[in-house]
């Protein structure tokens, strides 16, 4: 059984692409070999910045001969049919065999495919793999037409067994496969030949190339930790950086440096970010001071001066970077201490979106919204408003200009420097969260208020201007904002009517931007008053959730309209705003429900169960939806629950049919005195017990208890349908039974719309 | 930096690069006589990277980035600086080795330094161009851009050009061990009249920073932008044959106007009068010009078009 060694030697492969390239090479080659009839014992893939390597052990020496039997036309079929069959099989008539079949005599062909030697198959598979390699980005070079991630220089393709090694004959775009490669670019640049994988790996090591990325990572980790240990420091772990750095070197040589004292007062996040982003340094922390005081850089070469020149150079570059950072930080702190007015002013000229105004406009909206959300989440309204006004000012700071990923982090430092309370400063840091599905959800009330306002302003804003995500396009990260809203509310158990908040936020958007435009066009000042009323009232009106037509805002609109019957412009405008605001809010809620489905599905809750719950009133209270759905999902996991659902759906179907046929709604008046059977009477009794229990449980939002209560109906319902014919000839009995069914339907509706549950 | 081979001044580094690339067979060109943001804008790169004709050129290009002005105070940032540019078509298979040779030529020995090719894909939205390559790091500092051009002016580059761009001030400061650009010796520090970079450029950095940020007449710049755009379009639309019946498409004069528009946009940007959303629109307008010039250039002899 021969072994196969493949090396694709190129100019430097981007570090971030190497892991997938290893997997792709292994998959494409082994799949291709297996497809062609070869087998193998094991395969392993490796990479360095300059090479992708695949080793396959125990490959079969050739593919087996295969026979395939194919049935053709009947012997008495027209000549054309036979010709076609001969063409498709590549045989002649005398090679066919006539056999008896059910329908008469039929031609059979036996096609024999001779086995092929492994080298032919390997050459074909590798050629196809190289030409179709799924690099995220590939390029051409020189005058050639071939594509690779960077120019490809040489190929090893070697089959070896006990009798020796042979190069697989293969030439692709002028590169002929051979048995030689090169070592480290500087330390061992000469070409050398290899006889198989073990020889290859050993010679590479002598030529200062560590082939296995896992080994490079381990070497970096161990040496970095040793260097740190000698000073009593700890390396700050960073797996992503480790993988990247291991993909940038063939021969890792970690070197440790010390951060100059003058930079140690910089926030640790600044040191770490600057060193990581610009220099790809690991940070070293002094556990005694809690500060980051050193770094480890990983060179790719051993030098006669033991890296002294390299370390000095890196230290110098770092000093220049940190001088910039320190300069930015000092200036920023000065601005922060003077109240950050310049930054606030500056955000006036930063466009958030041309239809949604500047960042300053956006901050004003978020501040208003934060203030109004605050009481709902247990935050102090003054603090929430203040935090919202401060939270994004760091976008104008020099530090965030340099390191956008420090937005929020710097905001916290600057808010503290300005003398604001911790809770306010923390909100500046945390209000962008949660950014992804695994990012932590803020829990401090002020942070929650601002984080929620931030996301809701984004959503309502883009909905109001009709810039919704489509397909894979979501340039404003609205799905992320929706998931953030979901996680903030459900994660903090916040009982909110999102629809009211959406109405408020959308309305507020109009009052701050559209109304201004209207006024600029010579519109009536009263429009602003109308809109302000609209916003404030929708959020805090005692009315249940719902439409914009409720509450004092509607009244003020009505007054406005009647007082201005002659002002067609104004009334048209009011009508338009009302239409847009309510449509955008409803649409947005539907979008949020979609995202909630995705979110809950990931947590194992079936989509039809979520649909059944979303059909209930109060579906803009996500905590309520989640609790209901969870309880229902648990019940549906039991056989009892599934049978109950069948019964509820059956009751509902019969009722719906009867109602359609009779043109009336059966909803009231079932009386036990018309019951004819024990099963009917038992169902009456069960409903008498279950109904108040369900009502009480749902009212107190104890959904598991509601499920238990309704589950008790399963046996009586089953027995009822077993024994009783609903459509009795006696109209009184029939009507009574239909009304009884409506009690079942009603009991179900207390919990969910069971008709939406599948199965 | 202990190499005995070490250059002593900014100009010596430039001279060594010129000699090195001349020895590799490049035509050593002179800077383009227009204001540009980078060496890539020189028609010797943009236009000559198009079409099938072979090409090898090296040159210094003074480059202007008005928004980077810091009144000569920042140790590393300038609104006017120099790039060294090498462009070879088709890209030779040993371009990385040739490049490393140029580092040795200016005193950076890769056996004692840590030279690395770190992924950096290049894209110029104003030129409708992109390529793949690296930024080259020496001891953790970016010293060059190394790019294989894939598209320019919206056209596939066939063959592919290899482009090397050295940020001369930063590279020289590193080689010479200077902390502030203005302290860097421009000519030999032992010359009878030794001049630093600051002696030559501190005042101009101050003057241009003030003009770029505070004084440039934005109405006039907007008008100039429109004029350049209109003239570019007019040149491109002109008949290909002149009055004497000779076919002379005017790709280069048209491209000059595209360069002009690009620089005017940069000036307007520095004055802070272009909003984020307008920005994209202006970049798109310059790109449209550059693409049209590329289209026309491809019909000319210099692009290898058969007449």
UniProtKB/TrEMBL annotation, chain A:
GO molecular function, one term: ATP binding
Keyword Ligase: yes
Positions in coiled-coil regions: none
Subcellular location: Cytoplasm
GO cellular component: cytosol
EC number: 6.1.1.14
Pfam families documented for this protein: DALR_1 (PF05746), tRNA_synt_2f (PF02092)
Predominant location category: cytoplasm
Keyword Aminoacyl-tRNA synthetase in record: yes
Catalysis: reaction(s): tRNA(Gly) + glycine + ATP = glycyl-tRNA(Gly) + AMP + diphosphate
InterPro entries named in the record: DALR_anticod-bd (IPR008909), Gly-tRNA-synth_bsu (IPR015944), Gly-tRNA-synth_heterodimer (IPR006194)
A single GO BP: glycyl-tRNA aminoacylation
Domain DALR anticodon binding: from-to ranges: 648-746
Keywords associated with the record: Aminoacyl-tRNA synthetase, ATP-binding, Cytoplasm, Ligase, Nucleotide-binding, Protein biosynthesis
Alphabetical list of PANTHER family matching this protein: GLYCINE--TRNA LIGASE, CHLOROPLASTIC_MITOCHONDRIAL 2, GLYCYL-TRNA SYNTHETASE
Family, similarity comment: Belongs to the class-II aminoacyl-tRNA synthetase family.
Assembly and binders: Tetramer of two alpha and two beta subunits.
Stated name of the protein: Glycine--tRNA ligase beta subunit
Organism: Paracoccus homiensis
UniProtKB/TrEMBL annotation, chain B:
Gene Ontology BP terms: glycyl-tRNA aminoacylation
Reactions performed catalytically: tRNA(Gly) + glycine + ATP = glycyl-tRNA(Gly) + AMP + diphosphate
Assigned GO CC terms: cytosol
Keywords linked to the UniProt accession: Aminoacyl-tRNA synthetase, ATP-binding, Cytoplasm, Ligase, Nucleotide-binding, Protein biosynthesis
Claim: Chaperone is one of the keywords in the record: no
Matches recorded under CDD domains: GlyRS_alpha_core
Subcellular locations according to the entry: Cytoplasm
GO terms, molecular function: ATP binding; glycine-tRNA ligase activity
Family note: Belongs to the class-II aminoacyl-tRNA synthetase family.
Subunit composition and interactions: Tetramer of two alpha and two beta subunits.
Name of the protein described by the UniProt record: Glycine--tRNA ligase alpha subunit
Organism of origin: Paracoccus homiensis
């Amino acid at each position: 059984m021969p072994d196969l060694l493949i090396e694709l030697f190129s100019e430097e492969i981007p570090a971030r692409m190497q892991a997938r390239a290893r997997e792709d090479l292994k998959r494409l080659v082994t799949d291709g070999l297996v497809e062609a009839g070869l087998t193998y014992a094991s395969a392993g893939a490796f990479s360095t910045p300059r090479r992708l390597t695949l080793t396959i052990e125990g490959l079969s020496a050739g593919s087996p001969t295969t026979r395939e039997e194919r049935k053709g036309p009947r012997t008495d079929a027209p000549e054309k049919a036979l010709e076609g069959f001969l063409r498709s099989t590549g045989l002649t008539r005398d090679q066919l065999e006539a056999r008896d079949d059910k329908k008469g005599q039929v031609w059979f062909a036996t096609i024999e495919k001779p086995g092929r030697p492994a080298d032919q198959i390997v050459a074909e598979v590798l050629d196809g793999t190289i030409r179709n390699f799924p690099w995220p980005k590939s390029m051409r070079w020189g005058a050639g037409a071939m594509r690779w991630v960077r120019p490809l220089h040489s190929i090893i393709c070697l089959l070896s067994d006990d009798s020796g090694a042979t190069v697989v004959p293969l030439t692709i775009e002028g590169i002929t496969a051979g048995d030689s490669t090169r070592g480290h670019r500087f330390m061992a640049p000469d070409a050398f030949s290899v006889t198989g994988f073990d020889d290859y790996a050993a010679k590479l090591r002598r030529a200062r190339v560590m082939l296995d990325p896992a080994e490079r990572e381990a070497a970096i980790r161990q040496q970095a930790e040793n260097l740190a240990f000698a000073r009593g420091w700890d390396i700050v772990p960073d797996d992503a950086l480790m993988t990247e750095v291991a993909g940038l070197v063939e021969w890792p040589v970690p070197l440790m440096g010390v951060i100059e004292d003058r930079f140690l007062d910089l926030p640790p996040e600044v040191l770490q970010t600057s060193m990581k982003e610009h220099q790809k340094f690991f940070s070293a922390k002094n556990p005694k001071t809690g500060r980051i005081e050193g770094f480890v850089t990983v060179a790719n070469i051993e030098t006669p001066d033991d890296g002294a020149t390299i370390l000095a150079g890196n230290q110098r570059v770092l000093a220049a970077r940190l001088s910039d950072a320190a300069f930015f930080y000092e200036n920023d702190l000065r601005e922060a201490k003077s109240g950050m007015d310049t930054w606030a002013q500056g955000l006036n000229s930063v466009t958030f979106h041309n239809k949604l105004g500047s960042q300053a406009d956006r901050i004003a909206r978020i501040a208003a919204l934060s203030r109004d959300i605050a009481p709902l989440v247990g935050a102090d309204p003054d603090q929430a408003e203040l935090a919202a006004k401060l939270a994004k000012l760091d976008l104008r700071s020099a530090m965030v200009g340099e390191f956008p990923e420090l937005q929020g982090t710097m905001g916290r430092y600057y808010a503290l420097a300005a003398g604001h309370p911790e809770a306010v400063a923390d909100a500046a840091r945390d209000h962008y969260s949660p950014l992804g599905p695994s990012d932590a959800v803020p829990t401090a009330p002020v942070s929650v208020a601002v984080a929620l306002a931030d996301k809701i302003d984004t959503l309502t804003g883009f909905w109001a201007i009709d810039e919704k995500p489509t397909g894979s396009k979501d340039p404003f990260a609205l799905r992320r904002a929706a998931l953030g809203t979901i996680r903030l509310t459900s994660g903090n158990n916040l009982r909110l009517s999102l629809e009211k908040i959406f109405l408020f936020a959308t309305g507020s958007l109009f009052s701050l931007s559209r109304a201004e435009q209207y006024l600029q066009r010579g519109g009536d000042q009263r429009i602003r008053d109308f809109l302000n009323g609209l916003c404030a009232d929708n959020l805090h009106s005692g009315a249940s959730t719902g439409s914009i037509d409720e509450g004092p805002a509607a009244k003020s609109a009505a007054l406005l309209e009647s007082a201005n019957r002659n002002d067609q412009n104004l009334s048209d405008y009011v009508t338009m705003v009302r239409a847009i605001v309510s449509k955008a809010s409803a649409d947005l809620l539907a979008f949020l429900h979609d995202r909630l489905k995705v979110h809950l599905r990931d947590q194992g809750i079936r989509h039809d169960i979520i649909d059944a719950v979303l059909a209930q009133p109060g579906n803009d209270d996500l905590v309520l939806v989640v609790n209901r759905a969870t309880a229902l999902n648990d019940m549906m996991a039991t056989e009892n629950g599934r049978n109950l659902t069948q019964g509820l759906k059956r009751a509902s179907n019969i009722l719906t049919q009867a109602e359609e046929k009779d043109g009336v709604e059966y909803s009231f008046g079932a009386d036990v005195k018309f019951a004819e059977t024990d099963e009917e009477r038992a169902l009456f009794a069960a409903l008498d017990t279950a109904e108040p229990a369900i009502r009480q449980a749902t009212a107190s939002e104890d959904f598991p208890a509601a499920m238990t209560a309704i589950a008790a109906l399963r046996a009586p319902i089953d027995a009822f349908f077993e024994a009783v014919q609903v459509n009795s000839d006696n109209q009184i009995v029939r009507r009574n039974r239909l009304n009884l069914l409506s009690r079942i339907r009603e009991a179900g509706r207390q919990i969910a719309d069971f008709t939406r549950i599948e199965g | 930096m202990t190499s005995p081979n070490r250059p002593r001044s900014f100009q010596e580094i430039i001279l060594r690069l010129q000699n090195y690339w001349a020895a590799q067979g490049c035509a050593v060109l002179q800077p383009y006589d227009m204001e540009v943001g980078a060496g890539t804008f020189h028609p010797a790169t943009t236009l000559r990277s198009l079409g099938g004709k072979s090409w090898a050129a090296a040159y210094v290009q003074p480059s202007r980035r008005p928004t980077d002005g810091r009144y000569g105070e920042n140790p590393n940032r300038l609104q006017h600086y120099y790039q060294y540019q090498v462009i070879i078509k088709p890209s030779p298979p040993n371009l990385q080795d040739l490049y490393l040779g140029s580092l040795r030529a200016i005193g950076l020995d890769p056996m004692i330094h840590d030279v690395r090719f770190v992924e950096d894909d290049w894209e110029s939205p104003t030129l409708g161009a992109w390529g793949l390559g690296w930024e080259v790091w020496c001891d953790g500092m970016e010293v060059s851009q190394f790019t294989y051009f894939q598209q320019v002016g919206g056209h596939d580059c066939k063959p592919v050009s290899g482009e090397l761009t050295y940020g001369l001030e930063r590279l020289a400061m590193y080689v010479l061990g200077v902390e502030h650009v203005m302290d860097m010796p421009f000519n030999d520090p032992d010359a009878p009249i030794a001049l630093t970079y600051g002696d030559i450029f501190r005042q101009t950095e101050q003057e241009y920073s003030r003009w770029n940020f505070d004084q440039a007449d934005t109405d006039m710049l907007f008008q100039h932008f429109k004029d350049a755009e209109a003239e570019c379009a007019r040149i491109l639309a002109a008949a290909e044959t002149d009055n004497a019946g000779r076919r002379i498409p005017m790709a280069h004069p048209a491209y000059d106007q595209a360069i002009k528009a690009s620089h005017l946009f940069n000036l307007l940007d520095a004055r802070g009068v272009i909003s984020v959303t307008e920005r994209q629109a202006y970049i798109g307008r310059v790109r449209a010009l550059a693409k049209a010039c590329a289209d026309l250039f491809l019909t000319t002899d210099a692009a290898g078009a058969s007449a």
